Amino acid sequence: MPVLTLNGLGRAFGKVNAVDGVDLRIADGEFVSLLGPSGCGKTTTLRMIAGFIDPTSGTIEVDGKVLSSTKGSLPPEKRGMSMIFQSYAIWPNMTVGQNVAFGLTLRKLPADEIKRRIDNILGVVKMTHLIDRYPAELSGGQQQRVALARAIVVQPSVLLLDEPLSNLDANLREEMRFEIRRLHDEFKITTVYVTHDQAEAMATSDRIAVMNLGKIEQVDDPHTLYTRPRKRFVAGFIGRTNFVSGKRDGGTVRFDGFSVDADRLDGAARSGPELLYSVRPQNLRLSLGAPEGGVIAVAGEVAERTFLGEHWDYVFAVKEGGARLRVSAPAHDVHAAGTKAWLAIDPALMVPID
Amino acid sequence: MSLATSIGEVRTRLANRGVDWTILIWIALAAILIFIVVNPLARLVLSSFEVVDGKGYTIDNYFAAYGRWRYVQALLNTLVMGAGVAVLSALFAVPLAWACARTDMPFKNFIRISVLAAFVTPPYLGAVGWVLLAGPNSGWINRAWVALTGATEPLVNVFSLGGLILIMACNLFFFIFVFVTAALELVSTEMEDAANVLGAGAFRTAFRITLPLVYPAILGGVIVVFLQSLALFGVPALIAIPARYPVVTTQLWQFFESPVRVEVAAAYAIPLLGITISLLGLQRWLLRRKGFVVVTGKGGERRITKLGAWRLPLLGYALFVCALSVLMPMVVLVQAAFSRAWGRGFSFDNLTLSNFQFVLFEHHGARQAVFNSITYAAIAAFFAISLSLCIAYIVNRKLLRFSGVLAFLCMAPFVIPGIVLAIGFYAAYAPPPLALYGTALILILSFTTRALPISYTNSAAGIRSVHPEMEEAVRVLGGGRFTAIRRVVAPLLKRSLVGAWILVFIPTCQELSTAIFLTGPNTRVMSVLMLDFSEEGKLEQLSALGGVLLVITIAIVALGFRIVGRDFMLRRIS
Hints:
- The structure holds 2 protein chains of 2 kinds.
- Chain A is built from 8 helices and 21 strands.
- The longest helix of chain A has 18 residues, at 170-187.
- Chain A has 2 domains: 2-230, 3-Layer(aba) Sandwich (Rossmann fold); 240-353, CATH 2.40.50.140.
- In chain A, 24% of the residues lie in helices and 36% in strands.
- Chain B is mainly alpha-helical.
- Chain B folds into 2 domains: 1-47 and 350-574, MetI-like (MetI-like fold), CATH 1.10.3720.10; 72-337, MetI-like (MetI-like fold).
- Helix content of chain B is 73%, strand content 0%.
- In chain B, helix 4 runs parallel beside helix 8, helix 8 (161-184) runs antiparallel to helix 11 and helix 16 crosses helix 25 (539-564).
- Chain B is globular.
- The chains are: A alpha+beta, B mainly alpha.
């Protein structure tokens, strides 16, 4: 049973539709990320789920009960959710222990139960020894752990995270990503996570909803999203890619500089003759001799190259038609710019784009 | 959040609680502001057009107010005096601000504290000090002059336009000092280095680069000083009246002597209001053009200028200014406070504590006045801060539409001189049915109105410093907005609210120009009583009472230093 449902959810600010008809069903215990560039409406969506913003269209339901609609909304304090803010919002006037206890006190739990739960959660986030510290005495990562503990300890129906790692430095960010996922695996709280960082979303989420211009472009698990993007925006936003457009001509599809049998390509039987495919730079292979073994062989030359340490970034200029494709190659695979070369494309790794 | 969001929130509450308390709060706040800001001002303007003791409207009051050359002369006198005070204040303040902010002059902290002391000394008390120093016959300076040179004529006479200007500048140059110091701290040393590299010395750099960069701040400060000097009542009452140099505030006072001609006073006050509003507008505009002060993010190192041989001359000038504004008046006031008769000078048999005994224990009115000053100022400061805090919160969190109107009304009294506000309060609430004239309530309310702008500026800064997510974190965990305010916002604001309270309390405790028009027999405050003492020639008792006021002030400032930190007055009073 889906615990959290967004039905045609929309929010207009003046004439701007910040969120525009979002439909999303999140299952009990699922971890879903809203991923998109800034201004795509992901934070507005999250704040509508929390109850800080009212929708101008559509509804938000939890377990079939309407929490938000255009007729009015349950205020945030009555939703039984938790949220982790971009600024952490750790109250500086309270110690770590008081911060974590706050939500439990509001729920009027008995004192020994509160103490038991605080000890337990601080143990889980490895902060037990800092229980009497004030937030000003904590590092950024420790503040983040307090925020996590404070949000999880109340056992919320839904946990909301608003770009929680954007204020941390790179190493800590990587560490906290796993921490967040570990806590999710331990407590199985239904979670909505807003981020603009694809690596963060990939590392933490069961499913990712990619948003752009207030709409959800695609919702899938991270692997599917990366390997089978369906929209041009998604293919370009998640990792880097090459777009190649072709025309169906009877049994073959003609691209700029090469052609493929239509039955070897996914989605080539679609109605229109204009076709667009995405092929990742990692899935292209450069060689000096013509490649063999069922791949498409394209002649051309290495036009530009950049060495990035972990891999080479080549730009391959196709001989006929002049299309330029990005190719990612391992560090030992060295080709000078201007070298005549061949490109091998596996048609199975060409992904059709709507 | 946008306006649309806030409307949404309002609707949310309607849907969920059945009662929309936020609208009620808006109405309550608006009603209070109408009572203490809008209505007095409206009554002031209206009564300036009312027929005296009758019905209907007329512009006769303006003819009465400006029909006599004497009255016009007073207005012109005031402008001359204001210009003099502004120029002299700039001459005092700008070199001191530069020396304290950017040079290696010694004893900078002592100078800073003296400047602050000059400001927290009420101007009328400084005036009494100067009467003791430069009274034409018995003033210390003149007596020393006569003794030293055998001259028969006094050297200086405080009862003159020059005396008036000097005494006001001694108190008011503080504003320019604060403005210019703040601006100098924004000028990057690299600007000066660039001039040094091209071959300019320390003074050429200061005059050609540094000072021109802070020119808008200087001008802004000059305008504030000019306006403050126009609005002062105490110094003109002590100096200008004996000097036979009528100014606007003393003239307004005469309209209030029986028979009280409040309509004429109102008409006479309107140009003062107009001048204040337009000059403050000009000052805003000057300070808003940020083009002058270049605020660079990085490379903004502030290094001090080495003065070399000029260190001591500059220190000498700074000490001279401090001597004029604080040290000399203080010494003679303290001497007078502990003397049987101040003219008998420094000797053991002249030493006494009876003046303090008199004002603290014997004179019933004095004890009452000390008590009144403290309680009225404390309550008014509390009112003003509570009110402006509510409004700042609503404005900053965009809880309601049209909250900007409330903020505007909080800031509006900034342009109303205290004496003009008093006339407005008199016109609005002295007549029946309220008949508040002479009550503690009307004093507290008018003090509250005067304190609103400083309170609002400080409250808004405090609220801005609390990230909205701090409250949202409370709400998402199950606490309502009031829980968030009580458990998070209030504790976080405690310190800055204490600072704001002190900033309001000190000037309110010394307030004269509003109090003098509204006070009654049982509601006198210290400042009013000191003016009475001066008329009765009780200068020793006056000095003792002034000492009591200063001790209270210093205690409160010291408390502020402890709670809020050393610089809080220098940074935020303006």
